[in-house]
Design a protein that fits this description.
By secondary structure, the protein is an all-alpha fold. It has one domain (about 35-260). It contains ten helices and no strands. The protein has helices at about 5-15, 25-30, 35-65, 65-105, 110-145, 150-165, 165-180, 185-205, 215-240, 255-260. The longest helix has about 40 residues, at about 65-105.
Length: about 270
């Protein structure tokens, strides 16, 4: 074979270097469409059903305290849904998409930097949402018809929930980062574990079981916050350990400059460091 023919034969292998993505990501990129969609959607569907059950039982637990308590929590519920939709749907969808695109391009260093930036944005957005909700909440609840004991219940519940708004933003961002790697099972498992913690803890704190204090409506909010805090720790530990495809931890050298600068928006230095 002539040297020219040998060069042409070797060219395809040189043009397609081995991708650094894992087997799960490669299956997501190259697998059949329908089975891939079903595999990715099934854990999310299960989580949505579980959250519907938890929300229903939450109303049952608060209802034990009477109509005023249930009315007060109902006043806060729209803001809670807004917070969850913004953090999990609006920002979370963008984070998962950006991480998935970076991994699909074989640029794991860029995915790491995206994860770090996303977490910082989540902290800032959570703090801003907390400040806004706690500041405007009383006036908003009054405008919605809150009076007397119902208003007091709304304020008690909202102070705990929105006081921990950063936790919800960070949790949903971490879950979106993991989903962006193609791992739908872990966020679903963590959400299930959080629900299993919440279901006994909420009535225990609301009514005061054993040595636990009776917190009333604030007990339901505290139990919810505790489950999301634990879930955030589990998801961050998974990512920081390096067991996933993305590790939102900056180290020295070029990666540190990426994480501290604006190079997430630039593709000039996108060569993978792994």
């Amino acid at each position: 074979m002539s040297p020219t023919a040998q060069a042409l034969t070797a060219a395809p292998s040189l043009a397609r270097p081995a991708s650094p993505v894992g087997a799960g990501t490669r299956l997501m990129l190259e697998g059949r469409v329908a089975p891939t969609l079903l595999r990715l959607a099934a854990p999310n569907i299960a989580v949505m059903l579980l959250q519907a059950v938890v929300t229903t039982l939450d109303a049952v637990f608060v209802g034990w305290l009477g109509d005023d308590a249930l009315a007060g929590v109902s006043l806060v519920f729209p803001l809670v849904m807004l917070m969850q939709t913004m953090s999990a749907g609006g920002m979370g969808g963008g984070v998962a998409s950006a991480v998935a695109r970076a991994l699909g391009a074989g640029r794991r260093d860029r995915a790491d930097a995206l994860a770090v930036h996303a977490l910082w944005i989540a902290v800032l957005m959570g703090a801003a949402f907390a400040a806004g909700a706690l500041w405007t909440g009383p006036a908003l609840f009054r405008a919605m018809g809150g009076r007397g004991a119902a208003l007091a219940a709304a304020l008690s519940y909202s102070q705990v929930i929105f006081g921990g708004a950063v936790v919800y933003w960070v949790y949903n961002t971490l879950a979106s980062i993991v989903r962006g790697t193609g791992n739908m099972a872990l966020p679903a498992a963590v959400t299930t574990g959080g629900a299993l913690l919440y279901l006994p803890l909420a009535p225990a704190l609301i009514t005061g079981w054993g040595i636990l204090p009776r917190l009333g409506v604030a007990g339901g909010a505290a139990a919810n916050l505790a489950s999301f805090t634990l879930g955030s720790l589990v998801l961050f530990a998974h990512l920081a350990s390096g067991r996933g495809l993305v590790r939102p931890v900056c180290t020295g050298g070029r990666r540190a400059r990426r994480c501290s600068g604006t190079s997430c928006a630039s593709g000039r230095r996108g060569r993978s460091t792994r």
